[in-house]
Amino acid sequence: MKNHMQATAHDIAGLFTLSLRWVIGWTYFSAFWRRLIIDNKLIPEEAGYIGEKFNHFLPNALGIKPIIEYLVSNPEALHVSMVVFTIVEAIVGLFIILGLFTRLMSVGIFSLAMGILLGSGWIGTTCLDEWQIGILGVSSGFVLFLTGSGAYSLDQYFINRQFSFTNKKWFSYLGSGYLPIRRLQPKVLVMSLFIFGLALFTNQYFHGGVYGTLHNKSVRPKVEISNIHFTDTQLTFQLYRTEGADVYGSFLIGIEILDGNNNVVKSIDQKALSTFPTESINNHYVAKIKPGKHSLIIPLGAKADITVPLDGISLDENYTVKLTDISGIEWVAKVR
């Protein structure tokens, strides 16, 4: 009688999370649907390639930055990972919608959402877009693991028709029905505290949303200048765009070299940057710095070594390099 009541309680809980299951399932399955069926975004050579979007996560990812950097530095491995990732999203999303092996798929939801949270929780121009998606996905995955699926699910269909595998202990952990975990209440409390703590920590880390000053790294572009060195004939420096909106690039309209008195000794204007030679740009990742119609385009997460001819100019450590964005933002670094 007790086990029957416990099973019934889980059936009801699974029913109550029906809308959550369908919506969270579509959230992940639709990524596959948009990315492959509606518009193929898995072709590396074409605009909109999902690998470039993944590259946008790199500058301020939390904990998983080395993994992202390895993948965006190795295009073949990145492409394989994006294909596998898309297939996993499709399977997890579809199975959650159908209510098939719900608890196993909820672990997939939890893991995928954790990846979104840690990788792109800092991105969002008007709201904390990716952070909200990530942390709500983590929480939803945990809830679906606890409830499983009730009515309107394949798990429940198999249970009702008394398929033999539904009586196995493993099905209770991977499918739906009564969850045979002793002392469940304190375990749920501990996990809920962990998720809530994760929400507070990441909200503060990415956005300063708990205390102090709010910040949003997706609003204004930021380009870091480093590894500056020169010879008698050329100046080389590294550009790395670490902040700003992920949906469009920083548009560089000026590169200037200034002497110790801030006099411009060499200038590359907007027109020249729009035809800047690609052989003078050594890109490190799949998101590439490249000349555009009216400027030099620097996508979010792009890193490249830029080589500029000196045309007879003799440099020393008193000189500086200045970059100008089309928005009027300037970045300056000393020649070392």
> What distance lies between the first and last C-alpha atoms, to the nearest angstrom?
79 Å
Low-pLDDT parts are none
* Strand segment count: 10
How would you describe the shape?
A: elongated
Oligomer: single chain
Q: How much beta, percentage-wise?
A: 15-25%
> Describe the biggest sheet?
6 strands, antiparallel
> How many domains would you count in the coordinates?
2
Gyration radius, in Å: 26 Å
Question: Helical stretch count?
Answer: 11
- Order of helices and strands, N to C? HHHHHHHHHHEEEEHEEEEEE
**Structural class of the secondary structure composition?**
alpha+beta
Assign a percent range to the helix content. 40-55%
Short descriptors:
single chain; 336 residues; alpha+beta; Immunoglobulin-like; six-stranded antiparallel sheet; 11 helices; 46% helix; elongated
Structure report:
This protein has 336 residues and is an alpha+beta fold. It folds into 2 domains: 2-207, no CATH class; 222-334, Immunoglobulin-like, CATH 2.60.40. It contains 11 helices and 10 strands. The chain has helices at 2-16, 18-38, 50-56, 65-73, 75-98, 102-120, 129-147, 154-160, 169-174, 184-207, 270-274; strands at residues 222-230, 234-243, 250-258, 264-268, 281-283, 290-291, 296-298, 303-309, 320-325, 330-334. The strands form 2 sheets. Strands 3, 4, 6, 7, 9 and 10 form a 6-stranded antiparallel β-sheet that branches. The chain has a 4-stranded antiparallel β-sheet with strand order 1-2-8-5, with no helix packed on it. Strand 1 and strand 2 form a beta hairpin. Helix 2 packs antiparallel against helix 5, helix 5 packs across helix 6 and helix 6 runs antiparallel to helix 7. The chain is elongated and about 85 Å long. The mean pLDDT is 93.
